[in-house]
Fold each of these.
Amino acid sequence: MAEMIKKGIDSTGSIATIYQVQETLPYEILQKMYAPEKPSYPIATTDVLVNCDAFIDSTGAQWSSGALNGKPAGVFVSTGAGAGKETTVLSMISTMVHHGMLFFPLVYVAAYKELSDLTVVHGGSGWADGSKPSELEQKIAFIQGQEFSKIAKKFEIS
């Protein structure tokens, strides 16, 4: 889903870079879980966050200095049914508020046709896109990235 969000952002002329969180489970446990290999995206560090206007936990130094204040932020998660995606997104919003960040959800008007499509089973919602994304869910993710970038551009200072 991150790839589709990135494509949506890139489609507006903005540039997005995908980072991933450092894996916390030992390799042996991941093997027992039959976890797929992680993509080769760079690992997000707190140093990377300030340079990329991105956000992740462990940003106490950025919070105390106000480095993330006024930065646009969005959230997407990919989960199966009943996995708590709404709770995950809502939990992130409170942290963004403490940082003074501007939260932008999926713009329903832009993706209404896709979100209300009843001809195919999908997990796309204003909260996030479902697991094992279908073509429709990927389109919704693209729209989320595209609309996020359009809104964020309105806050650019020349």
Amino acid sequence: MAVFQGTNFNKKRSRCIARWIICLLPFLILSSMIYEFINRDLFDDYEERRVWCVVRYSKSIELYTNIVQYFHFIAPFLANLISAIFIIVYITRLKTTVQSQFSSQQQLLNQINQHKQLVISPIILA
């Protein structure tokens, strides 16, 4: 955000927004997974002296589970990757206007080389 807004970036407001997001995110994630707690049953096995946790899903809840799990995996990955690409492209545009002796393609390759860890790290974590 600071790259895009430049001198108009408000650090205090950004911290406030980040705090709200950090506080709300666990509740949003837990609320999307609340069905897990509802569909679990505990059974006592007296012969083997164990407690079994059994999950029974209907087809619709199974589909919802798959969608939520894919979303929880793909959304952070895409957010990291898109923000990294945005940073690289935006800095390339700024440097191309300032340093006209280099072409935009050369600037892009230079920025990719300088910020390759921003692109590589989300891919490795996936």
Amino acid sequence: MPNYSLLSIPAMWLTAQVPHAYAVNLVKRANNNRFDNANSKGSAFQASLKTAVPAATLARYERAEAAHRNGMENLPFFAAAVLAAKWAGVEEELCEDRGVGG
């Protein structure tokens, strides 16, 4: 039987990537299919978005990027909790239910 609680770690990582892909596609659609992420955390990038992208789209972009950051910041804690439960010998059924979210 597959170990679903351990598989939930890469599933969480993948889930955290979805808002970033959504954010990039938002900006690309609003900016003639252009997205330059050479320095996407720099202030010049944020300023260029404010001029090139409508305010409503920029707000959605910022919310999606915040969701992405939240997922990435919580991933180590989630992974540590799953691994600690496995190493501590917690019942398999409990790990499967909690790891997958059942």
Amino acid sequence: MASSAPTQKWSGVGVGSEDRQKPGSGVAGQEGAALATPRLPRKHHSRGSHVTGAGRGHAAAAAALPAAAPGPGRVYGRRWLVLLLFSLLGFAQGLVWNTWGPIQNSARQAYGFSSWDIALLVLWGPIGFLPCFAFMWLLDKRGLRVTVLLTSFLMVLGTGLRCIPVSDLMLKRRLIHGGQLLNGLAGPTVMNAAPFLSTTWFSADERATATAIASMLSYLGGACAFLVGPLVVPAPNGTSPLLASETSRTHIKDLIEAVLYAEFGVVCLLFSATLVYFPPRPPLPPSVAAASQRLSYRRSFCRLLSNMRFLMIALAYAIPLGVFAGWSGVLDLILTPVHVSQCLPELSWFNWCLPGSCLLSLLLILCFRESYDRLYLDVVVSV
């Protein structure tokens, strides 16, 4: 009768068919192994009977045996394509977020931005992170595909708003601010969903590497904005828009719009690829952890808040991230009073500091993969 039972389809909750067939996989497997242990028949013997002693010896030996270790699940080659799409989406989100800081002098001349406007354009990223719990709830309830599609669609809308051709500079500035806010709303998914993706698609020995790659590409995109902007958009000759010629202003505005159109095209391409192929989960779970039953959102949230170790790890991650996000986007604005602004079109070392450190960390991740030595190397690179 047990063999004719239908195979349970994996939906992210419960145990997958591959894990259920293994007697030592999870709690159900341990219970099955315990039930499958043969029991010795009860016989009435006199005191000191050697049969009773042997039965007790077998029972003690069976109880002392450790439970069978859970067997490995099945992994699919398509997991790398899913990781690539998600990582490129994070890269594009970081690049769009940090568009204006590295070219703030040119943006002032082309669109009449003030210092407050430049700071607010960068601030829309952290502001868009405020509804992060809503996105995490959507990820938990609707799965990876729906959340990533919504995120990429917000990025398409945001980058598209910035490209609407209008002659009114006030309206153009408002459209740019709205586009930056929509792109900021994509931040919670591309920066927080990496562990969920790695648990869903990758085995235990690949999970840390997948999480690190998916998380690193968002920072790499923000860092590469220091290269893309100054490479394409030249710095104005004068620091005041009143001293700049109309020809120079028009030329700089055209180059900025070329950057905006290019970013819009990249985001549309990634959205199309995600729409065509981004499955919510593999047919079979890669590990027991991926197939295990999940707690409710409210209950898991309360348990995490009461876990002191988790809170320490969360603070260790959040504090450096907040410093980086608050400082890197307005770095060019901060250095303007000391005459280091939109700074080095000759690609000197200063432009390569942030992208170079991100690429070095990514190289260490790929070289050392799941080794614990990588943790110490990452700490050294970060310091």
